[in-house]
Specification:
Length: 687
Amino acid sequence: MLVSSYDAVLVVSSFIVAILASYTAVSMATQISRTRGKAMALWLAGGGFAMGLGIWSMHFIGMLAFSLPIELGYDPLLTFISLLVAIASSSFALWLACRRRLTWRRLCFGALVMGAGVAGMHYLGMEAMMMMPRIVYDPVWFALSLVIAVTASGAALWITASLSRDPTHRTALKVIAAIAMGCAIVGMHYSGMEAARFPVGSICGAANAGVDTHWLSIIVALVTLAVLGIALIISLLDSRHVSETGQLNQSLHQANKALEHMALHDTLTRLPNRALLADRIEQTIETAHRSKSRFTVLFLDLDGFKAVNDAYGHAVGDFLLVECAQRIRAAVHPEDTVARFGGDEFVVLSQRGDAEDIATLASEIVEIVSQPYTIRDYELRLSASIGIAIYPEDGQDPHALLVNADAAMYYRKDMGRNGYSFFDPSMNANAEEHLRLVQELRLAIERNELVLHYQPKFDDPTGPVIGAEALVRWQHPERGLIMPDQFVPTAEKTGQIIDIDNWALDEACRQLKIWHEQGHQWTVSVNLSPLQFAHTELIDTVRKTLARHGLPPHSLILEITESTAMRNVDDSMAILQQLDELGVKISIDDFGTGYSSLLYLKRLPASELKIDQGFISELIQDSEDAAIVSAIIALGKALNLRIVAEGVETLAQQEFLSELGCDSQQGYLLGRPVPGDAFVHLHEPTS
């Protein structure tokens, strides 16, 4: 047999190229596993091409390191086919390693395919020498070369697949996988070369017609440089991706924390919200149960906040809530929880369980809340009503503690506000009554339980009826007729007032249309709540309601309170201007109780002022109320507004208002509110 030899430098170079090619493939495999669709196909093609080139390059570096005492060459076609085999087997191996689940069955199959590809590329490369006589292979070394190729390929596939499952050790695993793959390629190559036997007198048939070793060395050098370049680029890309992934993970962590905070805290005051409060009460119950201790829930409602909000606007109201929250937070211990329960309601979860300590805390909160506030140069005042429930005697779960503290708070309000009350079981009846009222009110419109009564408005002093004010009543099937002061505040607090206002507007216009068809050219006044006045669909609702009933716009008078009109003056002006353009008349109700500026008042597109009945009830000559009423009437006349006095109940009041020049009057003296049908019979002109 011909004696062969190896160049040690080229042998080492072949091993390095094999490892670099494998590292390139593994790096691309991590990119493939992160992508889908066309991007995945491009990374797969690039990875297979790079790895195939690396394996092919390693083989021919090894062949350049191998020398025989004869001239050698390589058949171009077989050399090219061996390259295609290397690329195809590499692409398949990468595709298999990037599957979501690499089962043992797939692993074994992939190892066989990749090992066969590496071996096939090697032995095709050997055939490209076109030796005559043909190369003889030692069976043992030949079989060993195949075993090495398959075994090492399987190990490399398994390690590559593990990269996606263990990102914390990705770099180490990539190096191990690259070394395993390199060993598979190099081990297979040199064991295959050891299996080759070249009989004495052998001739290389491709020595003259094929690619000689000089040109092959140039080609291999270029391919090796390409593999090295690709390996470097992939390494940089992967490092950048790891860095960006780390930054992204950190950003996502921060975003998740922010979202979690938003979900559990009130956006205005930054205090815990209901959800977080309930969780903390649950935790405190568990701790107190184990230690046989007590704790307290204080339910706090701000007295007078609604009036401030209506008078000065939501912006001032928001600043007031924030400062009030800060004061309450400062009054409690650091381990206590202060939560915003909703609107102007707060809850304090205190670790104190002694009644005297709790009374002291409640007194301090009441005191600190009642101190003056300076918001946008306004000096404002509030008070607080607090209900107290103590665990375990006043409730053994969050719901019971909150309900009972709420009941105690409402009891405090009924007793005069600006103070605190401890829960007593007798208070539950009131709390349950309030809850039942809210639930039944939701169904009142659907069940047609709401009705309108109409109070006549007379041309002063005792002239004909010129119209009526529509007043809502609740005809409850069990409780009878419920007056508005018993359910309207609840409806405003729950937002149900918008549906009630829409119904009242439609029903009043329906009744007015009937009166017009009967020949009575009256007007009807409908009250708008602050919520309805600020509702985005108000203008459209009024327009559609008038069109639906075929009414002239000037026959409808919309009444809004002075404080509502003065809240967010610019917005109010815009809304009132649109109503005025519709032809609807505007009445300023409860005039004299708000904070009107004459500068704004003269700009309001209103047609009448209604003097608050609080000034009328105590109206006698030479009184302070008489001076106020006289000034309001004079102001209204100067602004060319019609003046309406409501709440007229005595002849003395009627006569005095007539002397002052009041345009219209209404009240129990002149006519009580009655249903629409009865109104016609009572006030139809006699012939």
